[in-house]
């Protein structure tokens, strides 16, 4: 009996020694992600969970968005724009192959872009391709895209996950078995558990340092914390439990990296429904909101106050938080001026994320102070899309708008804010047709100011990105200009 | 006997049919468009319409019900809207986690609860009995997700004996697979054991006051023989009923524990499918679960007959 115990101990010691040895040359990584994607085709779904696995890892587009939000070359090594700003000519990299061995040529690009903008396309971001008139293959490695009108954001748009290049042979099966051109190949998907990807030895660019990466789906905040502490996952790029962050900050084994996202978190207001169609009422709401209290209470201090619908890290950002500073007395006056001296009764519909549910409680308490009595109605996403987004049957709601550079949504007349301002639409139309950076920034500033002055929505804060990973990992993104876990530069330093 | 079986079968079919209609109707009434959910808020109306067409959601309600139910009868449970794989495949993948976990928890809770219940009943009124009762009260009151987290922090984070969660798959070997099921099984089993031991105790005490027990005692049988041979067997009826209910719960009602341990179980599949409006998955899995509950109840009925011969003739 003692012999057996001894040999077990010896065996355990040996395994332990081997595993420490393996640790020295670590080339695999397990990441935690909060949500499981419905499928793995970024050209047929809006779920951020899809891009969080495949973007830049499995699929690539003509261009790509870098860690700081800039447009970088990807499958197109270079491009030129005609003088009338209508024709883009893309030069593709030579020697690019898809994971199934077939080579990439101009025909695949034509196919991908035509498919995305086709009549029966199920691309979730069809608007990205709206400016395209025709796509032609000039030769095997040259593609010519002709636009209907000049578009300043075209190269950026082509860097979205929804605009990646796919092969005609595999386009229909990418949902289950994604075949791209990226530095990682899809390996396996254990539904409900994890997706694994492995290094693509035939990659056209530099080889990545990781041999294998696994994305594990862990949505419960307490479970996410435990999984990191137990070492089951070594990185959680979008950590879902802000309350547990101090614990990790105090632990030298982990790096806690707090960056920004493209998520403008706003108290969306139904501008088309009385009494919220009155500017004074919306201004009153803006004066009644104490942004820092919401950030502290709902997000444990993580987040940056915003005064309009624009990301603070963008070069064209204007500081507008003080347009309507926190001033409950002024809010009450404005309500009285608008004809509601006795206050207002309204509802607030809150979708599941904690920024909305926790933030909504605080917003309701703050608005009650000035006489706006909110009934809180929790809804699921499906209900939210149906009732709030589609039927516009709501007074107030809280949503983080996570698409990058999405100020243009305010120019859509049928959008759920029901905001209609011809002056703003003009600015957006000009922005669409302008390519020069300085002029574009000037228009963006103008747009931000219009929205802030109109108090279209209660602009609250920019959602933070909380990343926690093993202190020996480098190369993960600090910010998320697009929702991605780009692993191309990730390596173990030890 | 044949008539009995046929009648029983008829009732089961009616139950299943009604369940399928109710499930289908409820899910169709619930607001939420699976296509819009998949494509998000930036999608154009025609893209959503194209996806609805692909999913077959453009067909009228009645047509969809009959094609679903018709498929089920031939063993085709349809394809998941979100995953676009056959529903049966999804269920099978989850069953290999949920079923062993449920059985493990059930075995664990029974092996704890029945001896504890007997022990407690045999020492009724003593301080040992009071101690057991207090412990089971605590066991019922503790929220199982909280207890699960304690287990994780102790055994996974501090001692690193087992993983904090996840399921490596049976391909990874029996050891790792079982290791990942141990904590969830304990977390599930303990509250169940607490209930079960209280039921065992009170059932035993009820039986112990029956006339035939007094007779058995009067004819001079030792106390243990009376307890084990005469009392226990009769006390098993309510215990079996609870076991049947618990099994059905363990199979699909363990969503919270599955979340804490991020296990790919049936509960999470249904939950995820509901939030994603993957209606076909919800409908099919719920009907399958209804069928399982009916079968388990039937088995419990048979077990009644085994425990109490008087019930066989009815």
UniProtKB/TrEMBL annotation, chain B:
UniProt keyword terms in alphabetical order: Cell membrane, Membrane, Transmembrane, Transmembrane helix, Transport
Segments crossing the lipid bilayer: 9-30, 97-122, 134-156, 176-196, 235-257, 285-307
Source domain of life: Bacteria
GO cellular component, one term: plasma membrane
Record's subcellular location: Cell membrane
Family statement drawn from the similarity comment of this UniProt entry: Belongs to the binding-protein-dependent transport system permease family.
Domain ABC transmembrane type-1: from-to ranges: 95-300
Entries under Pfam families matching the protein: BPD_transp_1 (PF00528), BPD_transp_1_N (PF19300)
Coiled coil, from the record: none
Main location: membrane
Protein name in the entry: ABC transporter permease
Record-linked Gene3D superfamilies: MetI-like (1.10.3720.10)
UniProt lineage: Bacteria, Pseudomonadati, Pseudomonadota, Alphaproteobacteria, Hyphomicrobiales
